[in-house]
Amino acid sequence: MIFVYFILIILIPIWAQMKVKSAYKKYSKVASSSQMSGREVARRVLDSNGLYDVSVEETRGVLSDHYDPRSKVVRLSTENYHGHSVAAAAIAAHEVGHAIQDQQEYSFLRFRSALVPVANFGSNASWIFIMIGIFARLDGMLLLGIILMAAGVLFQFVTLPVEFNASNRAMDQVVSLGIIRNDEERETKKVLNAAALTYVAAAAVAVLELVRLLLIYTGMSRDE
């Protein structure tokens, strides 16, 4: 069982990353009918939603695209910033989806933002207590570590509706604004769905690890 567990937590993220890279590689070579760059797509969607104060910037890296709510900036990786592909349009619109969530004070986005410091502390500190608890056979310390880890797991789960909602908003925007045609909707959805898999995989791995530690804790409690 331990072997199966470790295979799962290794293979699930790898599989998700492969799906993302495969979809992105395929559709980054498919030009969108609008011939708009990712930057132009982002600017068009932002302006149509009255988000004139949100800027669009180029950032380094591959698939490093994100929205920064503190600076009010949509940052697109070089290929998506300049690219005119279906993939570039999908990813740019997705990141703008987060900006729209921010504007409308989307509840899950606000909750996730509030969880950030708690989740960061929990993720970093949990393993200290977990390792002490396991090696010193102190179930109280192990339980404290599990509780701290649970904050990180909660963050992963709250991220799911945030990401799926941003993708749904992205689809609505690119379709209603005529950025993609009807026959391009399928390709756009494939890019967005593949990206969402990474968050699902991260949540699944986090839950598996939490369950494993809970089983260790219950085993230690029985032995006392």
From TrEMBL:
<dbReference type="Pfam" id="PF04298">
    <property type="entry name" value="Zn_peptidase_2"/>
</dbReference>
<feature type="transmembrane region" description="Helical">
    <location>
        <begin position="196"/>
        <end position="217"/>
    </location>
</feature>
<keyword id="KW-0645">Protease</keyword>
<dbReference type="InterPro" id="IPR007395">
    <property type="entry name" value="Zn_peptidase_2"/>
</dbReference>
<dbReference type="GO" id="GO:0006508">
    <property type="term" value="P:proteolysis"/>
</dbReference>
<keyword id="KW-0472">Membrane</keyword>
<feature type="transmembrane region" description="Helical">
    <location>
        <begin position="114"/>
        <end position="135"/>
    </location>
</feature>
<keyword id="KW-0378">Hydrolase</keyword>
<dbReference type="GO" id="GO:0008233">
    <property type="term" value="F:peptidase activity"/>
</dbReference>
<keyword id="KW-0812">Transmembrane</keyword>
<protein>
    <submittedName>
        <fullName>Zn-dependent protease</fullName>
    </submittedName>
</protein>
<feature type="transmembrane region" description="Helical">
    <location>
        <begin position="142"/>
        <end position="162"/>
    </location>
</feature>
<keyword id="KW-1133">Transmembrane helix</keyword>
